[in-house]
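thought: user wants a sequence for this fold. calling inverse folding tool.
action: design(structure=
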């Protein structure tokens, strides 16, 4: 096992979750062929097939199942060791790196203020993460936790407090037929192309951003999505606070009836959980409970 590469192990773990070479590549930010190369290298080290591939499906072999069972806790322990070493290196007083998409909403900023007020040594660094990559920064360790739009169905990520339930607003060009309306309904969305999120966001998350029957262009950042809407390339679903904070003279914002509200959640990596992250999650949940009671 000399020269074992962590990237090969990471590739196997992601592929075991996705059972799809293309989706695994999107999560790892590599091509599908690179996923195949990494898996082949690992199988050569092991000396046997770990994954069965056919034209219709991908599945773990019995040895692959056994290997996954042994590898997952060991890989998790490695992540935890790195997180612990990082905390020790910072003397336990380093900032909590908190990711957010597009806009740091008022409920989030209130929780940050309350969290820092509990201990003068605490601080929070706010880091914007790409609209089209809600989970990548957490997986790479670029942030300790992140606030993202639901849904989240990732086995390696913990979904913490859910908050900021908001009505949707439709952003359209001022030249669009909907621009002069006081509201639109779910049936109206089926008649316009909706701007969605680009990869590497998983398909189910992308589908939630553009639930209409007509797919529109895909955007990587929120500003890119707004620009596409302003140019008349499609309509963009936004929660009301985001629409309010991104007013533009070339975009009309129209309330939407009949679609599920948007919700945010705090997420973090299951294998890199720290007490600091758990404490911030408690603070955020307390703040949300206080708003609901008020």
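)
observation: tool returned 294 residues.
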């Amino acid at each position: 096992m000399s020269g074992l590469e962590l990237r090969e192990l990471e590739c196997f773990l992601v592929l075991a979750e996705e059972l799809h070479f293309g989706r695994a590549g999107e999560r790892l930010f590599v091509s599908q062929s690179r996923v195949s190369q990494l898996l082949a290298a690992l199988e050569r080290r092991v000396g046997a097939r770990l994954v069965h591939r056919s034209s219709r499906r991908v599945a773990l072999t019995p040895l692959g199942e056994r290997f996954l069972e042994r590898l997952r806790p060991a890989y998790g322990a490695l992540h935890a060791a790195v997180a612990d070493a990082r905390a020790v290196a910072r003397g336990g007083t380093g900032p909590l790196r908190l990711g957010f998409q597009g806009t740091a909403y008022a409920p989030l900023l209130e929780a940050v203020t309350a969290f820092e007020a509990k201990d003068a040594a605490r601080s929070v660094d706010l880091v914007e993460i790409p609209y089209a990559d809600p989970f990548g920064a957490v997986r790479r360790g670029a942030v300790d936790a992140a606030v993202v739009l639901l849904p989240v169905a990732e086995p390696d990520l913990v979904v913490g407090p859910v908050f900021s339930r908001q009505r949707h607003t439709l952003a359209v060009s001022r030249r669009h037929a909907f621009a002069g309306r006081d509201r639109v309904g779910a049936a109206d969305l089926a008649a316009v192309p909706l701007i969605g999120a680009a990869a590497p966001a998983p398909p189910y998350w992308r589908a939630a951003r553009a639930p209409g029957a007509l797919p529109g262009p895909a955007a990587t950042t929120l500003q890119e999505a707004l620009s596409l809407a302003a140019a008349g390339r499609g309509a963009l679903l936004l929660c009301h606070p985001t629409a309010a904070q991104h007013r533009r003279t070339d975009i009309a914002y129209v309330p939407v009836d009949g679609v599920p509200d948007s919700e945010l959640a705090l997420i973090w990596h299951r294998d890199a959980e720290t007490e600091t992250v758990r404490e911030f999650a408690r603070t955020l949940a307390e703040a949300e409970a206080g708003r609901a009671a008020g």
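thought: summarizing for user.
answer: Here is the designed sequence. Residues 6-87 form a domain with the Arc Repressor Mutant, subunit A fold (CATH 1.10.10.10).
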